Amino acid sequence: ISDHMLPETNERLRRLPITLVEADYENSTKSKALNLAMSRLPDHDIAIVFDADNTVDSDFFTRINEAFEHAGVRLLQAHRVAKNINNHMAVLDAVSEETNNSIFRSGHYTMGLSSALIGSGMAFDYPLFKAKMLTIVAVGGFDRNLELSFLKEGRRIHYLSDAKVYDEKVQNKQTFSNQRRRWLSAQVHYVAEFGKDFFPALMKGNIDFCVKYLQQLAIPRIILLGLTLLYTLLISLLVPAFAPKWWCLSGLLVVALLLAIPGELFDKRLLKALIMLPSVFWLMVKNLFKLKGANKQFIHTQHGINR
Length: 307
What we know:
Radius of gyration: 20 Å
CATH topology of the largest domain: Spore Coat Polysaccharide Biosynthesis Protein SpsA, Chain A
Number of strands: 7
Strand content: 5-15%
CATH architecture of the largest domain: Alpha-Beta Complex
Distance between the termini: 22 Å
Structural class: alpha/beta
Mean pLDDT: 91
């Protein structure tokens, strides 16, 4: 799907053995583009959603097909990993991605809960996805809307850790800030939109939906970590008697986050990238005051060091 791509890019795409769908909406969104494509394409068995920069291994589609042969598998999230860790910002973004994979995807799935969706590397039963997308009018965070909607219906989202999707990580602070602002805005939006569904789901024993909704209430990890450490330092100065408890809590939080990071990312690059954490924390705090209007227009995630 080409949405406001350059004419020369579209011309190059037309030379490939693909079906090119061109979206030219004044206010573009991922959901609009996907619905347009499915309205023009014949029905299929499985729909797989990728971002334009995503790449996969040669056996990816075989693994997806094999997974869908199992009874009950209609919604699936593949394992999205970093395609690039070429600077400090990309390293931090890669660590954030894998932390989310450890907690909200493989962790959830191991405990019998649904995997979280992540916007790309997602595979769906085609008729089910097509019908559900017609109800999605999200500007930002369409994957959150999709996930909460499916979980509200009692459907399970499976996770396939050995089917990897390589995703380009952001490489500068401004792009990181814009991306997270969009995510934060979507988080706040869907807290309000799905709030009325929480207690009915709780009464029905729909634990999947309830857990996901409660996660929407949590502040971003970098803000949680920063505020916890700052509060611990403040307590140590003002009320030293309470300091040991807060240092223990801070330590447990740090250990929990470290345990979620895969071993292959523990190297010198990560240690060097940690020097950026204070500035990233400040960017995220400032984003809390810039959410107005962020969910009313699509904020494209640009890639590259200087973009």
